[in-house]
Amino acid sequence: MAKGHRSQIKRERNAVKDTRPSAKLSYARVSVQKACFVLDAIRGKDVMTALGIVTYNPRYASSLIEKLLKSAVANAENNNGMDPAKLYVEECFANKGPTMKRVKPRAQGRAYRIEKRMSHITIVLNER
């Protein structure tokens, strides 16, 4: 257990900043499971290979992830001064977002709930 007051512990934890370039897409209208199929394919790959994978992947999530990956590369180049040729996808994950609940009418006056799921997709890059 860490010693000190709770605010001191939080201050120490927040003092360590993550300087890796990243990009985050919040409230993407795709479920976590469907986004993870594409994210698993690009994890650990260099940026050019990852862009090739998402460009020719037929899934809907790949178009969102392609735009997000290009944004992360631009962040690395402009904010951190990194070389785009040396970058690779260090981390990529999708977290669960809010769910929109809709109702669809069914037989004999019943209602059927449809859940439209959202996700928060994050891509973190690093240099080799």
Automatic annotation (TrEMBL):
Gene3D superfamilies xrefs: Ribosomal protein L22/L17
One Pfam assignment: Ribosomal_L22
One GO CC term, this protein: cytosolic large ribosomal subunit
GO biological process, one term: translation
Keywords in alphabetical order: Ribonucleoprotein, Ribosomal protein, RNA-binding, rRNA-binding
Keyword Ribonucleoprotein annotated: yes
Comp. bias (Basic and acidic residues): 9-20
Record flagged with keyword RNA-binding: yes
Functional note: The globular domain of the protein is located near the polypeptide exit tunnel on the outside of the subunit, while an extended beta-hairpin is found that lines the wall of the exit tunnel in the center of the 70S ribosome.
Family of the protein in this entry: Belongs to the universal ribosomal protein uL22 family.
Subunit field text: Part of the 50S ribosomal subunit.
NCBIfam families (UniProt xref): rplV_bact
Record protein name field: Large ribosomal subunit protein uL22
Organism (species): Lacrimispora saccharolytica (strain ATCC 35040 / DSM 2544 / NRCC 2533 / WM1)
Gene that this sequence comes from: rplV
